């Protein structure tokens, strides 16, 4: 097994062996964990199932979070789409609804799949499942896409820990949008180069995103950020499928993210000491919740 | 840097909202329960720093208690654990403190029952945890491996005695950690293993005269 820690290595491996990203990823994950490829796919399918369950529960609930800041925005969207169609059509509606449903399910202590983190748990499932439903992608294809997304996240995390406290939200929702872009590209028949460019484009256009949650809770701006970045990932996939390339190679984009994260003030990395968390309104909310 | 796997990226399946403040808390409680072994009569949790300040909004207290009661990170009962019948089976108390020397997400747990045990740990991110102290001994337990904890009289030759028992039973050691409170007094040994361990091995180690105490700590399922 060739150890893969960069996207260049992954591309080389795919070309040399004439395989897709998910094939390389599932073979390596199986070998490393001393299990079969089929077991890797069963594991992935469990996550996929949990994602679908979270969307369903989230769509059906109006329960607020403990802080009462969030929990009813998906419901608001659903009401709007009963009367009016979204400007960009049905798939757009599903993506924003699914992303909000999942994120709201997370903050009301429902069951979700962290992907890569709990705060960014709505992005990959929203895009992957909405597109799969509307384009009739089979369960097998969805698993292929989720493994592709996971491999992208794994290689990013080989350089930068996917945690807001380490590199800001670019490493959570940003990484999730790169993973999601890769998944959508895989679903829509993109080749290896297109998939990696989709992920690079998504990440490149979200560099510098800080982690400044109000009252230190995974709610504001996290919940609404999920639908934004799910749509962001579709833009990246569309560009890449048209063979538009990231001018900066993916590995270098990840290097830039690492550097940006290191230069980012600690007050903007999950410590809630600056940014949105330090606004007048945020401080009032914080006082109301924690006294 | 710890190597992240494909599985880490697309999991855990968990009760929200935070991998460090909710899932991490459950796992800390679970691993502490595995260390203490018996059902405690009472557990006192002392939460530090970010755990103390934002715990309520993240369900950290619920997670810790649920873990001690044996619920896994994806158990829907975590949300209403304080109102459950299960929670009525033990006493529990939460305390809060600030201490910049501690990890931002640190907790100290005091288990009381037939014996009293102090277990301290940290939630280090993405649901990963580390138990850092058991009673007065410094340890590092992540819940990823089945582990044998041995407390013994500090003296030469203990490691080789224990490792020869493991070798005899064909067990591969993944990591080994020792600590002691003073030269010639009590020492602790933590042995993480590939695979599992049966009672015979634990009993054989227990028979070494200088061994005061042996415990087999099972790894966390997810």
| End-to-end C-alpha gap of chain A | 55 Å
The H-and-E topology of chain B, N to C, reads as HEHEHHEEEEEEHEEHE
Strand content of chain B: 25-35%
Tell me which oligomeric state these chains represent: heterodimer
In DSSP terms (H or I, runs of 4 or more residues), the helix count of chain B works out at 6
Query: What is the straight-line distance between the termini of chain B?
Result: 21 Å
Q: What general outline of chain A do the C-alpha atoms trace? A: globular
Structural class of chain B: alpha+beta
The CATH C-level name of the largest domain in chain B is Alpha Beta
Shape descriptor of chain B reads globular
Q: What would CATH call the architecture of the largest domain in chain B?
A: 2-Layer Sandwich
Structural class call of chain A reads: mainly alpha
Structure write-up:
The complex is a heterodimer of chains A (291) and B (222). By secondary structure, chain A is mainly α. Chain A has one domain: Orthogonal Bundle (2-methylcitrate dehydratase PrpD). Chain A is built from 13 helices and one strand, in the order αααααβαααααααα. In chain A, helix 4 packs antiparallel against helix 5, helix 7 runs antiparallel to helix 9 and helix 10 packs parallel to helix 12. With 222 residues, chain B is α+β, with helices and mostly antiparallel strands. Chain B contains six helices and eleven strands. In chain B, strand 9 and strand 10 form a beta hairpin. The two termini of chain B are 21 Å apart. The model of chain B has no long low-confidence stretch (mean pLDDT 92). The interface between A and B is large, with 53 and 37 residues.
């Amino acid at each position: 097994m060739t150890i893969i820690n960069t996207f260049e290595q992954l591309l080389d491996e795919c070309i040399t062996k004439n395989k897709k990203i998910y094939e390389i990823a599932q073979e390596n994950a199986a070998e490393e964990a001393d299990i079969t490829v089929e077991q890797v796919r069963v594991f992935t399918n469990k996550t996929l199932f949990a994602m679908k369950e979270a969307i369903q529960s989230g769509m059906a609930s109006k329960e607020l979070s403990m802080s009462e800041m969030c929990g009813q925005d998906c419901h608001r969207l659903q009401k709007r789409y009963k009367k009016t169609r979204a400007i960009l059509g049905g798939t757009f509606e599903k993506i924003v609804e699914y992303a909000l449903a999942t994120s709201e399910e997370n903050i009301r202590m429902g069951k979700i799949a962290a992907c890569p983190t709990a705060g960014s748990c709505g992005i990959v499932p929203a895009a992957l499942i909405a597109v799969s439903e509307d384009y009739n992608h089979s369960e097998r294809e969805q698993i292929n896409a989720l493994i592709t997304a996971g491999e992208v996240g794994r290689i990013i995390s080989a350089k930068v820990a996917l945690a807001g406290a380490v590199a800001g939200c670019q490493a959570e929702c940003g990484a999730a949008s790169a993973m999601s872009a890769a998944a959508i590209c895989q679903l829509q028949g993109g080749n290896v180069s297109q998939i990696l460019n989709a992920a690079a484009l998504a990440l490149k256009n979200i560099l510098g995103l800080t982690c400044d949650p109000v009252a230190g809770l995974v709610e504001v701006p996290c919940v609404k950020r999920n639908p934004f970045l799910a749509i962001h990932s579709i833009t990246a996939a569309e560009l890449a499928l048209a063979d538009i390339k990231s001018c900066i190679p993916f590995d270098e984009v990840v290097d830039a993210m690492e550097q940006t994260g290191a230069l980012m003030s600690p007050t903007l990395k999950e410590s809630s000491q600056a940014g949105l968390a330090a606004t007048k309104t945020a401080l009032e909310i914080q006082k109301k919740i924690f006294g | 840097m710890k190597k992240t796997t494909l599985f880490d990226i697309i999991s855990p399946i968990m009760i929200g909202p935070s991998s460090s403040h909710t899932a991490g808390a459950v796992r800390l409680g679970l691993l502490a329960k595995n260390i203490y072994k018996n059902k405690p009569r009472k557990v006192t949790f002392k939460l530090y720093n970010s755990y103390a300040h934002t715990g309520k909004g993240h369900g950290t207290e619920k997670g810790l208690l649920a873990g001690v009661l044996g619920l896994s990170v994806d158990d829907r009962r975590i949300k209403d654990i304080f109102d459950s019948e299960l929670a009525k089976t033990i006493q529990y108390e939460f305390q809060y403190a600030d201490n910049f020397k501690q990890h931002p997400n640190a907790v100290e747990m005091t288990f009381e029952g037939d014996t009293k045990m102090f277990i301290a740990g940290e939630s280090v991110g993405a649901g990963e945890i580390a138990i850092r102290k058991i009673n007065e001994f410094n340890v590092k337990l992540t819940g990823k491996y089945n582990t044998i904890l041995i407390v013994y009289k500090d003296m030469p030759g203990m490691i080789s005695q224990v490792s020869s028992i493991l070798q005899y039973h064909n067990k591969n050691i993944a990591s080994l950690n020792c600590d002691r409170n003073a030269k010639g007094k009590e020492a602790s040994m933590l042995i993480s293993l590939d695979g599992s361990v049966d009672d015979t091995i634990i009993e054989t180690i227990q028979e070494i005269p200088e061994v005061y105490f042996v415990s087999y700590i099972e790894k966390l399922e997810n």
